[in-house]
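[09:14] KT: can someone run the structure on this one? pasting the chain below
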Amino acid sequence: MRNNGGWQAYGNFMFRRRLKSHGIGANLAAAFFTRMLCLPGQRVDAMLKEMLCAAAIALMMAAPAVKAADLDAAEAASLKADAERGDAVAQCALGWCYDVADCEGLPHDPVKACEWYGKAAAQGNVDAQVNLGLMYARGRGVQQDYARAREWFEKAAAQGDAVAQINMGVLYDNGHGVRQDKAAAREWFGKACGGGHQKGCDYYRLLDEAGY
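[09:31] RB: done, structure tokens below
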């Protein structure tokens, strides 16, 4: 199995609940998930892309209707103030605004996105750790560095995050930043599956059927 580009993003229901506790709409997560996985040119196996895009569309349908911006100017200003006060969830969400979300007054800037993800990740915020790992894996806002990606994915995986566990599996499956090891990939996917992540189960099954 090859999942080049098949990284799992942080547009999941758990993060949506965390954002909601800060007054941030669920449409923000769903919009990101769809943009990252369904845009033309994403290097994802056709069958895998079909599965991921179906999940993204389900998220979009479950979310409120997208307004003119994911966050209006007042919401974005409030979020930034919380982030500057050191709130890790707000820092992660602010990174998201600078990364891909449509937040009034906060233009897309992947370098700033990495900066805010980094602040939150350093505080142990698991979503930010995954996000920062993705930025390193993709070379977005930073020089591509699979070793650094692995560092942040491992930190999140150690907290039991299934998305990070899947991304660790992707690294081992493709030999990115590590020696290619299909058995190790299968083990990471199995952990994610055990944590209730269906994509982890799907990837585990594919490797298991391939004899790894």
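[09:33] KT: thanks! Confidence is low (pLDDT under 50) at residues 1-5, 10-27, 29-44, 52-68.
[09:34] RB: yep, looked fine to me
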